[in-house]
Design a protein that fits this description.
The protein is of the alpha+beta class. The chain has a single domain, classed as FAD/NAD(P)-binding domain (3-Layer(bba) Sandwich). Helix content is 25%, strand content 31%. It contains eight helices and 21 strands. The strands form five sheets. Strands 8-7-16-17-18-15-19 form a seven-stranded mixed sheet. A six-stranded mixed sheet has the order 10-2-1-14-21-20, with helices on one face. A hairpin with a 2-residue loop joins strand 11 and strand 12. Helix 1 packs parallel to helix 8 and helix 4 runs antiparallel to helix 5. The model has no long low-confidence stretch (mean pLDDT 93). The structure holds flavin-adenine dinucleotide. The site of flavin-adenine dinucleotide has 39 residues, from helix 1, strand 5, strand 15, strand 19 and helix 8. It comes from Halomonas icarae.
Length: 346
Amino acid sequence: MTQPQNHTAIIGAGIAGLACARSLAAAGRPVTLFDKGRGPGGRLSSRHLPQATLDLGAQFLSVRDATFAAAVEEWLEAGCLAEWPTSLWSATDDGWQRHRDDLRRLCGTPCMSALTRHLATGLELHARTRIERLERDSREWWLVDAKGGRHGPFTQVVIAIPSAQARALVAPHDTALAAACAAVIQRPCWTAWVLFDAPLPTLPGVDDDWQAVRLHAPALRFAVRNHLKSGRGDQGEGLTLLANLEWSKARLEDGPETIAEALFNAFQRGLPGDITLPEPSAMGAHRWRYAQPDVFASGEAVNVDYRLARNGLALCGDGWRGPRIEDAWLSGHHLGDALTGGSSAT
Ligand SMILES: Cc1cc2nc3c(=O)[nH]c(=O)nc-3n(C[C@H](O)[C@H](O)[C@H](O)COP(=O)(O)OP(=O)(O)OC[C@H]3O[C@@H](n4cnc5c(N)ncnc54)[C@H](O)[C@@H]3O)c2cc1C
């Protein structure tokens, strides 16, 4: 296919790739997204079971930056976000305590991927297209997918995927970018989901409206009551359980059934009081091989939250800034500004 001049390809339609794409599109620049998944979303993906919709990656977003806060207002207006959780708890030695801070938190409605689907609206996206190789032809770039399809030519290629995967794409073309990717360690995380036919019992010392709790167990760091999120209709009681990163790393090759059982047992043990939970009606687990970046892995603070090379290759995503949705979005947004000559404060 012949593309107009200045056409940008973006590999990865997670929140970072989409933020970059929207900045480019807003400046009138042609942009095409490629994602190996069934649709946009990446780590904001949700699983739709007959009896429940479950967020298996990010559970909510939090807001610190003013530019991100303005974008959040637009998404609230569009109806794809809602304030959540409003009842957050922490496990302490004295039992569960209500967690209070001034941070604003919101989740996607009716599921986390509603936000990325909203951001992808009107953009050209090739889903189910895993890009395996980049080819350079004179001054232009071509993308080769897993089925041998060749896409291009493009003047610019933005790679908005976890750094370990980005490294494989850039290594044959740019040793400096490959070295930068190698310095970012992206750690794995297991997430389990557990469904019940009966509601959870009242926990001693805990209000019945609890929506999420931070835990300090060896296996488990966070538990979320998925069915209490905005837009979940009348689906039954369902938990999402996020494992600790070190625990996940040690059990990376275990089966999902074993992991789900272990995390459910860890949750049961972490409950305040002598409580027995109802028997789960279904459970499962999902492995995120590149879940959370450790951006200071190289020992240096990162002062630019994307990478842009003269040869037309660029990198963005949470690995270049920090471990949250806000970081990933800002990285992609700032790269979009840099590519279009716009300005934004980091
Ligand atoms: C379990 C878990 C819980 C989390 N909880 C929170 C939370 O509560 N709050 C919060 O703020 N953040 C949370 N995060 C972090 C947050 O999800 C990420 O920081 C953010 O989503 C990263 O976005 P991204 O666009 O950089 O990458 P991704 O979302 O990973 O997007 C990359 C995309 O690239 C695609 N891709 C990869 N390789 C290729 C290829 N070769 N060809 C084509 N496509 C490719 C993938 O399919 C994916 O869609 C959590 C993450 C995990 C895993």
